[in-house]
Every structure is written in C-alpha cells, then in structure tokens.
Amino acid sequence: MIEALIFDMDGTLVDSEGLHYEAWKKVLADYNVNNFPFDDFVTYVGASNEKLAEDYINSDGLTISIEALVAEKQLIYLEMIKDIKLLPGVATTIERYYGTFRLAVASSSHCIELEKILATINLRDCFEQVVGGDLVSRKKPDPEIYLKTKNLLGLQAHQCVAFEDSEAGLSAAKDAGMYGIAVPHSLSLHHNFERADLVVDRIDLADDMFLRSLSSSLS
Q1: What CATH code is carried by the domain that includes residue 175?
Q2: Which of these ranges, 13-17, 19-23, 144-148, 209-213, has the smallest mean pLDDT?
Q3: Strand stretches in the chain, DSSP E
C-alpha cells in the first residue's frame, strides 16, 4: 500500500530554475566567466550544484574549491527565494494529499535552501521529512537520497511514490525501488522518462485513482 509521496523541489514544486540560473550567472561573472548562456545551464537541470561548479572550475581554470563556489552561489540564491512561486497544480496536490499520505521532500538542493523555500511558500508543516543534497554523499541520479528518505520515514521503497521533473531524479527514485511520476516542464521535455510509472503535464493530474491502482498492484 502506498504510504508516502516524496517530491523533488526545483522544477517539481517550485518555479526556481530561472533563479538558479541568475545566481550562477552572477557568481561565475565574479570569476570572469562571462559566457554562461541559458542553454548551457539547461543541460544541468536535474544535476547538483556541485556538478556545475566542478565543470566550470575545470573548464575555466577557476582557483576556488567546489564547496566555496557553491557556497557563494547559494548566498545569492537565498536572497532570491523571496520571489519564488509554486508551479501550477502544486497547491491543489498538497491540499489533496496532506493528511492522507505522509509527505516528504528529497532534493539535490541543500537543506537551508529547501527550508527557506518551504517557509516562504507556507508549506513547511506539510512535510514530515526534508532531505537535501548536503545530507548524502552521492547526488541524483544515484538513489542514495531516496533510500535515505524512505529510511527516515521508516518505509519500504514500494510504499513510496516520487514526483520528479528530470531524468536524473526519476532514475534515482526508480533505482531506489520506488514508483516514479514524471512531471516534465519546458526545460526537461527532452529528458528520457521511459521508466516513469506515469507522465503528466501538471502535478495535480496524478490523481487518487492512479495512486489507488499502484496500491492494488501490490495486493
């Protein structure tokens, strides 16, 4: 029986990818990396901040550690969170399932970012567990973050459904043994979602009937 719904944050619950891009663009410019087109940023959708930092440190010979560059970008991004917005259908989904299923967040973003976002959009009390990328050693597409989240919930993987907007995130959830619902957006439409148990245009289109069908499939 399905007990928990686990949500990615960026691009799944909130429209934050543009803010991440602006924060990265600013911090890279501080290190004289002035060629950071949006199309390059899009290739990192679903990847961690650490991966982007590592690639640019290596390609442009930046004399800064991955951790320090990510921390500088994070300071800029945290100031932008006040402008963050829920994606369409998210409020309906949380209202529909809060109290029926246990809810959690599993995101490659750091906990300080996730907590500030949830406080800003007034949804923190809805989520039993908030697991950030700084709590695991291996980021998505590795399944570690989903394995950690289900362990914190005290559940088996088959009792959890993950909502993801990227191929990397979906792979992490599926490799952890969970059901996976893909909610692609304009930046991830080209991703491969063949492993998804369901693909929807809006998160609120994953309805009760579908979740009940997952539960019955275990009977």
Answers
A1: 3.40.50.1000
A2: 209-213
A3: 4-7, 102-106, 129-131, 160-164, 179-182, 198-199
